[in-house]
Design goal:
- This is A-kinase anchoring protein 7 isoform X5.
- It comes from Balaenoptera musculus (Blue whale).
- Helix content is 68%, strand content 0%.
- It is mainly α.
- The protein folds into two domains: 41 residues; 34 residues, no CATH class.
- The model has no long low-confidence stretch (mean pLDDT 75).
Length: 84
Amino acid sequence: MGQLCCFPFSRDEEKISQKPIGIRDLINEALRRERMGLQSKVKQIKELLLKPETQAKIRRELFEGRFINNSNEGNDVDFSAILT
């Protein structure tokens, strides 16, 4: 029975044992793809936020709201209009 471990694998068995595809591999690949998509979106948002036009819109929204409604401390700025 000890001799069974010493028999060399055939080429097909060796290929299979080197890289088994399991659930963990599939999950890691799905996470990698999702991360790449999210990183792409973050890059687009950063580029948009660096544009002078976008920065001017943000400043205008923030400061105009503060000066007009100075007594209202609950001012909420809707950034969806700026980022679309």
